[in-house]
Amino acid sequence: MELRQLKYFVEVARLGSFSMASKALFITQSTISQQIQKLEEELGVELLSRDTRHVVLSDYGEQFYPCAVQVLEEARAGVERIRDVNALKIGTLSIGATYSFGPLLKRTVQDFYKQFPNIRLNLIITSKEELRQKLLDRELDLLLTYKSPLGDDRIESHLLFQSRLCLIGRIDELKGVGKEVSVRDLARFPLALPSRGLQARDTLEDVLFAQNVNLDIRLEINSVRTLLDLVANTPLVTILSEESIQQVQGFEAVPIAHPDGRMDGCYHYLKGAYHKMAAQKFIELLKENNSFNQAFSTVL
User: Fold this and answer.
1) CB count, 10 Å around CB of 209?
2) In whole angstroms, how far apart are CA 113 and each of 88, 107, 237, 282, 283?
3) In whole angstroms, what is the distance from residue 205 CA to residue 202 CA?
4) Integer Cα distance of 229 and 124 in angstroms
5) Would you give the DSSP letter of residue 209?
6) Distance from C-alpha of 132 to C-alpha of 155, rounded to nearest angstrom
7) Alpha helix (H) ranges present in 137-245?
8) What residue ranges define each of the domains in the chain, with the CATH number in brackets?
9) What strands lie across the sheet with 92-97, from one edge to the other?
10) Do the strands 92-97 and 120-125 form a parallel or antiparallel pair, or are they unpaired?
11) For residue 295, how far is the Cα from the chain centroid?
12) Which of 20, 48, 174, 293 has the most Cβ atoms closer than 10 angstroms to its Cβ?
């Protein structure tokens, strides 16, 4: 059974004439007749009752006609939805991001919504391990993390921007610190740190490995946004990526002088999976919002 056979049948039944249907469809009458006959042979019943002057629906045709009309309407609707998806007028996009990456998304989400208001955006912020599994289970279209690939050959990873782990605080609190701060000098500051398991904290642990440094930790919290609010209103300073304060006024970021202090932003797809156009547009916007320190589509 083919859509064109249904189309020919519906048009003949609607007009009650093979010749009129032929003119309406710009197809020869013999072609229409042959295709409807094939349809009837496949179904094993006569759909149309014919005589020299009239064409009417048989009992079988009366039952089949509304079904054929519905199939054609759904096919047309499907084509329209494909066109809407192509124009990003409809669809969904599920994005996962780690806690440390979350603050970078605000501006991009706002820009994406302005450009594509009919795309439903599902944003999940949780741990890297949980997000990795969600990506493998196809619950996410796109995953955003700091630091490095996810260590799984089923996932393809790309560099989004280059960044560094920094000592971050109010401008007056970090006045005179210099262009970089040593690992040993971190002990001089009262610190509010991201909790263990967040990517900035994991990177800090890499930096501190084998270093005999005792940090003055006053507070730990698993919300980067709340952490920055606390630093903005207390003498405490924190340690995060320099991108964490990209859209926040009144902060200073001083890079930590250590080779393990890289905090590169990355995006990840499930290898071999279909990449939605909406995901590609979101990445383009994210790159534009981080264009001051950007690395384009480098495979890790």
Assistant:
1) 9
2) 11, 10, 33, 10, 14
3) 5
4) 22
5) T
6) 9
7) 199-208, 224-232
8) 3-86 (1.10.10.10), 92-162+264-299 (3.40.190.10), 165-255 (3.40.190.290)
9) 120-125, 92-97, 142-146, 265-270, 155-161, 294-299
10) parallel
11) 19
12) 48
Give me the sign of the Cα torsion angle 33, 39, 41, 44. negative
Of 203, 183, 181, the closest CA to residue 193 belongs to 203
CB atoms within 10 A of CB 78: 10
Rounded CA-CA distance 285/279 in Å is 10
Whether 297 has a pLDDT exceeding 50, the answer reads no
Q: Which two tokens stand for residue 70?
A: 């519905």
Letter for the amino acid at 28?
T
Helical segments of 44-157, H only: 59-86, 105-115, 128-136
Scanning the structure block, which residue is given the tokens 């932003």? Answer: 265
Q: CA-CA distance, 18 to 82, in Å (whole number)?
A: 32
Residue type, 127: S
Q: Which two tokens stand for residue 220?
A: 């730990």
Q: How confident is the model at residue 300 (pLDDT cuts 50, 70, 90)?
A: very low
Report d(CA 4, CA 72) in Å as an integer: 9
pLDDT per position as a tens digit, 77-125: 888 778 767 778 888 999 999 988 887 888 899 999 999 998 999 999 9
Give the tens place of pLDDT for each residue, 168-190: 999 999 988 999 999 999 999 99
Polymer length in residues for the chain: 300
pLDDT (average), residues 196-215: 90
Coil/strand/helix, residue 236: coil
What tokens appear for 221 in the block? 């919290």
Asked if 237 and 191 count as a contact pair (C-beta separation under 8 A), the reply is yes
DSSP state, residue 183: T
**Does residue 292 carry a pLDDT above 60?**
no
Place of tokens 């909790």: 195
